[in-house]
Structures are given as structure tokens and as C-alpha cells.
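[Discussion] Sanity-checking designs against the backbone

I'm trying to build intuition for which residues belong where. Below is a C-alpha cell string of 199 positions. I'd appreciate it if someone posts a full sequence so I can compare it with mine line by line.
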């Protein structure tokens, strides 16, 4: 009968097998992401002064993960947000928040008509036969009126922060826990900072 307390190459090998085998099994059972969703890239941003106010002209790099595309096919709606903030530095106090605006764009799929629907702030609806065409409107949205004329002081320079991404507030409850812990549901840009001189 072998001494259980004995040492040697055989005992060391058995010890490592007992230790490593469960670890390898645990790693094998972990869910493997098929394709992590990349962040949103703000490719172009410009503030335009028009007769009715200040408009944002922008373009974004957005790619949906496989899980997001599957959610669309099963009737889930995806909501994207765009946030913009204009602040004016003041030496005697906190920065003045001149404009804070948020726009929501929804993307859904109708199984019966086999069309994708894009709605801007719940009012402007457009239908597309393919996902790529629907995403084109999200990637290159129409010029957004962020504030009326008079909201900014002409000649003053403002610091602008712009961000865009998938809105976690609208993720369906059954998917929310998964979305918080899964890279495939993390889709947002870094805040783009730039300056704008009001006209």
C-alpha cells in the first residue's frame, strides 16, 4: 500500500492534475462572446447656424453585434441616444450650461412586412427593406435642431460635448442583466469635446 504522504514525481503530477483539471473545465464552460460590439466612433461633427436655430450635422461609425441583430429579428426595439451639451466658461463661477439636448432614435423590425423601421424621437418614421439601409440613417442622421436662435450669445466661445450610443434605459428587462455584463450590448462613444464660436 502506497504512503499517501509520500512525495516524488508521481505524487506531484497527480496533484497538478487534480488542481488544473477543474480550472480548465471552468474555463471551457464560460460563455464565449461571438463578436463583441465595438464602440461608436464619432466621425464628423459640425454645428451649423440656420434661420431656425443651431443644428448638429454629424456622422457616426456604428456596428451592431450578433446579439443585437438577433434581438431585432425577435421583435425587440433598439434605442440609440445622442447627447450634446454647450457650456460657457466663467472665471467667477461654475461654467454656464447654455444648452443640454438629447435625441432618441429607435430601430425595429416588422416580421410581417419584413421591413426595418427607424423613428426619430418618436415622431419621424421611415421604413427600409434592409438593415444596412436603416443603419445608414442612424450613422448619418438628418441635421438635428439642438436649440433655437437666441440660446447662445453671439461671439461667445462654447465648449461642446457630444456622445452617442445604445441607450441602456430602453433595453428590455429580460435582456437588461445580460446587457450590463455582456460586451455585445455595450455600444457607446467616448465624449467628443470641441469648441464652437456662436454666430
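Best answer:
Here's mine. Compare freely.
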Amino acid at each position: 500500500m502506497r504512503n499517501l504522504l509520500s512525495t516524488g514525481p508521481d505524487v506531484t503530477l497527480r496533484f497538478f492534475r487534480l488542481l488544473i483539471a477543474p480550472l480548465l473545465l471552468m474555463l471551457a464552460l464560460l460563455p464565449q462572446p461571438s463578436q463583441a460590439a465595438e464602440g461608436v466612433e464619432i466621425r464628423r461633427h459640425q454645428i451649423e447656424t440656420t434661420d431656425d436655430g443651431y443644428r448638429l450635422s454629424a456622422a457616426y461609425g456604428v456596428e451592431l453585434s450578433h446579439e443585437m441583430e438577433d434581438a431585432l429579428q425577435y421583435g425587440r426595439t433598439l434605442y440609440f441616444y445622442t447627447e450634446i451639451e454647450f457650456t460657457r466658461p466663467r472665471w467667477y463661477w461654475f461654467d454656464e450650461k447654455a444648452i443640454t439636448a438629447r435625441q432618441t432614435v429607435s430601430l425595429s423590425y416588422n416580421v410581417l412586412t419584413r421591413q426595418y423601421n427607424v423613428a426619430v424621437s418618436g415622431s419621424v418614421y421611415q421604413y427600409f427593406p434592409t438593415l444596412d439601409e436603416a443603419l445608414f440613417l442612424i450613422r448619418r442622421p438628418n441635421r438635428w435642431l439642438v436649440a433655437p436662435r437666441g440660446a447662445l450669445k453671439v461671439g461667445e466661445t462654447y465648449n461642446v460635448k457630444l456622445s452617442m450610443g445604445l441607450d441602456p434605459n430602453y433595453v428590455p428587462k429580460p435582456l437588461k442583466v445580460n446587457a450590463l455584463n455582456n460586451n455585445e450590448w455595450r455600444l457607446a462613444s467616448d465624449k467628443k469635446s470641441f469648441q464652437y464660436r456662436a454666430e
